[in-house]
Amino acid sequence: MVRIVNYIKRHSEDGREFFSLELSGGIEMVLSQVSGQFYATSKKAYITSTFDEDTCRSLIGNELPGSVSKVECEPYEFTVRETGEIITLSHRYVYLPEEKKVPQSYENVHANVNAFSMNEQFSELQT
Fold first, then answer.
1. If you write DSSP's letter for every residue of 22-90 in order, what string do you get?
2. Domain count of the fold of the chain
3. In terms of residue numbers, what domain contains 53?
4. What's the predicted TM-score (pTM) here?
5. The organism sits in which domain of life (predicted)?
């Protein structure tokens, strides 16, 4: 589960205003490479929304099924706010919704539709 902990006003490239929801994953204990001591942290991710500011404000505290996970990406530069240091990162944290099992009946319908489409294409090739 992840929790909506905040929202942020952003602007699109064309200047339109929208809001992102800040999600926080569960608490994790991480071993410091410097001190050798554990510290508590949580991963954060942001998802865009179509909600207005009042709705975003009302969503704070709600939980969503899923997790915040680290995924590899193209390298990019990041400025550490506290020190001003510019570092290169090759990962991002993203929200991954909990996978839902597809009902067996849906899988059969999907397979039948694909088979039907392939038969139609095959029939057209023979005429």
1. EEE---EEEE-TTT--EEEE--EEEEE-S--HHHHHHHTT-EESEEEEEEEEEEEEEE-TTT--EEEEE
2. 1
3. 2-126
4. 0.68
5. Bacteria
**Does residue 58 surpass a pLDDT of 60?**
yes
Backbone angles phi, psi at 36, to 5 degrees: 80, 5
Of 19, 75, 24, 7, which is closest to residue 52 (Cα–Cα)?
A: 19
Q: Say how far apart CA 46 and CA 6 lie, in whole Å.
A: 9
Q: Which is nearest to 28 in space by CA: 81, 68, 73, 80?
A: 68
Whether the predicted pLDDT of 114 surpasses 90 = no
For the chain, state the CA radius of gyration. 22
Please, which contacts does 3-6 make with residues 24 or more away whose CB atoms are closer than 8 Å? 3/61, 3/62, 3/63, 3/64, 4/59, 4/60, 4/61, 4/62, 4/63, 4/64, 5/44, 5/60, 5/61, 6/60
